[in-house]
Design a protein that fits this description.
The chain folds into two domains: 200 residues, Rossmann fold; 133 residues, Rossmann fold (3-Layer(aba) Sandwich). It is 45% helix and 16% strand. It contains 20 helices and 14 strands. Helix 5 runs parallel beside helix 6.
């Protein structure tokens, strides 16, 4: 399988190049030349498969031409060392819980898969992974790559704009993980990463790649759990007219879901749930994409004002606004609405959403049509936002042992301004 750039000006790349390089030479995002539809027999029997069987079949369709089957299946099984259960919240609405991995966030799937695939491809040269985070990406990537031989990870995060628990998950690890505290917002962190990839002098000194969802090895594996969610819903007899809602920030997660739909996943439609950062919602209403600086919200992992994966979505739909709108609708919610939803769902059902999942639940509760069933992605454990959630529900939130272990560590991070020359100078000195 070859991969092309969304900007259309870079040469085709092999999977290995696309994974190792991350971003194409023309600053575009890599896309597979074709998307293989899975046979109807797969969906006929999907309810009888386990998570690994489902994911291996999907992985074969994406990566089977480029990775030995046994090696690929070993990567999948090692990645998915935890379940992603579909849990009933109320009649007609279910949560796909994606927070049962090592860092209790959905990004564990993509980060762990990428780390293992990159290790499979890596030659003798030392590799440097740059990753910008608005919350959960940094912890998932850092823990996914922790201790991987020959790979150094630099996590860029906006100062004061991630939760304390999220921060401790990537600032207390040490070893091959370095945390960089940027005096700016997430979009500044993301711009630094992209500029680093485009700097010839820096790339001549260091072999760089990204672990954000701009990397095909990060976002494509996230399709695994959409198929698994459908399998569980079918097992419960709830898969007819299934609507999936994905809380969306950089849009890698919903992009993986759209790829799954293109592969034949029987989903009626998708809903992209936004917080106050409503750039994509506005695009769906107007047909005009107008990125703008992000604003800080209590659903901080979605605080993105210029989502990178928008380029993949419009490419997937042939740059047709009408085609995008046929498969995707959008919502946008204020902090007050998110808090109201967390409180209401908890008081009525006993189910505790995190701020991102609350956007997903509310979008389904307001947007389902007669006869439809909703499945929303619960993307992180609510304990990762302990102070926020406790203040909303007026009750304590238990912290799982996995999180407590991170909190016992000592924070180690390097403060940097948001200008690229300072970041380049830092990396240059690290490469000496």
């Amino acid at each position: 399988m070859m991969y092309y750039s969304t900007n259309g000006k870079a040469p085709l790349a092999s999977l290995e190049k696309a994974v190792v390089k991350g971003l194409a030479e023309d600053r575009g995002l890599y896309m597979p030349e074709r998307i293989q539809r899975l046979p109807g027999t797969f969906f006929d029997s999907i309810q009888d498969m386990d998570f690994h069987e489902v994911a291996c079949a999907v992985a074969d369709a994406f990566f089977g031409e480029d990775v030995d089957r046994d090696a690929l299946h070993a990567i999948v099984r090692d990645t998915l060392s935890f379940d992603c259960p579909a849990v009933k919240v109320e009649d007609g609405i279910f949560a796909l819980e994606l927070f049962h991995g090592p860092t209790l966030a959905f990004k564990d799937v993509g980060a762990r898969f990428m780390a293992r695939l990159l290790g499979h491809f890596r030659s003798g040269e030392r590799l440097n992974v740059l990753v910008a985070t608005s919350g959960d990406t940094g912890s998932a990537v850092a823990n996914g790559f922790l201790g991987v031989d020959g790979i150094d990870v630099f996590v860029l995060y906006p100062k004061g704009k991630v939760s304390p628990i999220q921060e401790c998950q990537f600032t207390t690890l040490g070893r091959n993980i370095t945390a960089l505290e940027i005096d700016g917002v997430f979009d500044d962190c993301q711009a630094l990463v992209k500029n680093a990839f485009m700097d010839p002098e820096l790339n001549a000194r260091m072999k760089l790649t990204s672990a954000n969802s701009i990397n095909v090895a990060r976002f494509l594996p996230q399709s695994f759990y959409y198929f698994w969610g459908y399998a569980q819903m079918k097992r419960m007899g709830m898969a007819d007219k299934l609507v999936v809602c994905t809380p969306s920030g950089n849009f890698g997660n919903i992009c993986a879901g759209l790829f799954a739909k293109r592969m034949g996943l029987p989903v009626e439609r998708f809903i992209a749930a936004n917080n106050a950062n409503s750039v994509f919602y506005d695009y769906l209403r107007t047909g005009v994409y107008s990125p703008r600086p992000s604003v800080q919200t209590i659903a901080n992992a979605m605080d993105v004002g210029d989502p990178s994966n928008f380029a993949r979505i419009i490419d997937l739909y042939g740059h047709s606004w009408e085609a995008v709108c046929r498969d995707i609708s959008g919502t946008t919610y204020s902090d007050a609405q998110i808090a109201e939803t967390i409180r209401d769902v908890y008081n009525r059902t006993g189910y505790l959403c995190d701020p991102h999942g609350a956007c997903g639940f509310r979008a389904l509760s307001e947007g389902l049509r007669p006869g439809e069933t909703g499945l929303f992605c619960e993307t992180a454990h609510p304990a990762k936002f302990k102070d926020t959630v406790e203040s909303i529900i007026g009750a304590p939130v238990a912290i799982p042992e996995k999180l407590q272990a991170f909190m016992r560590g000592t924070k180690e991070s390097t403060p940097l301004p948001k200008d690229f020359p300072s970041f380049k100078d830092y990396l240059t000195k690290k490469s000496n």
